[in-house]
Design a protein that fits this description.
CATH topology of the largest domain: Rossmann fold
Number of helices: 14
Structural class: alpha/beta
Number of domains: 3
Shape: elongated
CATH superfamily of the largest domain: Response regulator
Strand order of the largest sheet: 7-8-6-9-10-11-13
Radius of gyration: 24 Å
Strand content: 15-25%
Low-confidence stretches: 1-5
Mean pLDDT: 89
């Protein structure tokens, strides 16, 4: 049945299937012993047939229970995750529950452009469970590898796979809600500032084909929610990174293009929204008198003198709920997928159209 934890295939089972001793099978995998190539080929073929991913680096501890380690796969560089206060709040909430279990957290960065490069790192790690966090791709090559090893998996929306328990967010509905709020304030010329739609995303205008081919579901769904309210003809620009600097660069494309500027910008993250505020100030525009700005996440911004209007995802609570679901997985249960609630938080960066 989809999502059921599979029985771990042992080296002994592989050896029996190949007609060799367990020690010979071990040498065949290590490549360091005097084993004939024909025998090596037979052992590897048996391993592939049985779905054996290789010798477990902490087999002795696993025989007694658990390794005590949960892998947390983060898309892109860890540097970017640690600069994002929402990402930090989710990780903090998750770590609180892992401390209670108790279990350690192993952070694993997965390259956006070459996601398969994470597989050797996963193969070399003894993990009780794996969590995919922070806006990864809809499909992930690590899922097949981990499923073959019988390792339970959890995600916060992506990858979308029946073998992965997901705690998602109604990104489309939440984006539509903040868009309707601006519409209620009388805004009609509204632009949308997107997080990257895929690993090769560059800062610039978004075409319909790019939206249709989006790899990152959060970005796509928030754009669709915006479009549900304001239609297909409003300006949309994506960024190469969801940070303040790229938000400011993209905002200038929307505000300083020589045409009729938008009266409001819906940004897909709070950091992007802060980039919009910075760009508006550089261009002599006042927020919210000349330009309304909204974000998405609900993070603390102590260095910002105002209060950002945003869709609050409750990052720490989300992290703790992810931890609770992980606890169920570690206890051998399969929890159902869930949806994290969001709340519109009205601040000082939005106002009625003048």
């Amino acid at each position: 049945m989809a999502g059921t934890r599979q029985t771990r295939v042992t080296l002994r089972a592989v050896a029996q299937a190949a007609g060799v001793s367990t020690s010979t099978a071990s040498l065949a995998f290590s490549g360091k012993g005097p084993v004939a190539q024909e025998t090596v080929g037979r052992v590897l073929a048996a391993a592939q047939r049985l779905g054996y991913a290789g010798p477990d680096p902490l087999a002795s501890s696993l025989r007694q229970g658990r390794s005590g380690v949960v892998g947390v796969v983060v898309e892109g560089r860890l540097l970017h995750a640690f600069r994002d206060p929402f990402a930090v709040s989710v990780l903090d909430g998750l770590s609180q529950v892992l401390d209670e279990i108790p279990a350690g957290m192993l952070l694993i960065a997965q390259s956006a452009g070459s996601p398969e490069r994470v597989l050797p790192h996963l193969s070399a790690s003894a993990l009780d469970a794996v969590a995919f966090l922070l806006c990864g791709p809809r499909e992930n090559p690590a899922v097949d590898h981990l499923a073959a090893r019988g390792i339970p998996m959890l995600a916060d929306g992506s990858p979308a796979d029946p073998r992965v328990v997901n705690l998602g967010v109604d990104n489309r509905g939440a984006s539509a809600a903040v868009s309707r709020y601006l519409q209620g304030l009388g805004h009609r010329r509204v632009a949308h500032l997107l997080m990257p739609l895929g690993p090769e995303g560059t800062t610039g205008p978004v075409t319909p084909s790019q939206l249709d081919a989006a790899v990152f579901l959060d970005s796509r769904d928030r754009a669709l929610g915006f479009r549900d309210v304001f239609g297909k003809h409003q300006l949309m620009v994506q960024t190469s990174l969801p940070d303040v600097e790229q938000g400011a660069t993209a905002a200038r494309l929307l505000l300083d293009h020589g045409g009729e500027r938008p009266t409001a910008i819906v940004a897909q993250s709070d950091l992007l929204a802060m980039g919009v505020v910075r760009a508006a100030g550089d261009l002599g525009l006042r927020v919210p008198q000349d330009l309304s700005v909204t974000g998405f996440d609900g993070v603390e911004l102590p260095w910002f003198p105002g209060v950002l209007t945003t869709m609050d995802q409750h990052g720490e609570a989300k992290g703790r709920r992810l931890g609770a679901l992980l606890r169920e997985l570690l206890e051998g249960r399969r929890p159902a997928d869930e949806e994290q609630g969001t709340d519109l938080r009205v601040g000082t960066t939005t106002a009625a159209v003048r």
